[in-house]
Amino acid sequence: MKPDNLVYMANQIGKFFQYQKEDEIVPGIASHIKKFWDPRMREAIFAYLDQGGDGLDPYVKEAILHLKEVKKPAETSFQGT
């Protein structure tokens, strides 16, 4: 899927959630993308964000950053004895 389409769709989701309470906007966007976007779509939007994320609305950028951070495996160190 082309980045322009993903940006458009993500911003449409953001427009829907912009009328929620301030503290519910980013979690709402992130939840929707996590639930309804195919993993390949999420990976594509993460890659697009890594390139600057031009055109993404601020709340949408924040939500995608949150999803990207949550996706990372927990960094733990194992020290055997």
TrEMBL record:
It comes from the Bacteria. InterPro entries: Formate_DH_dsu (IPR021074). This is Formate dehydrogenase.
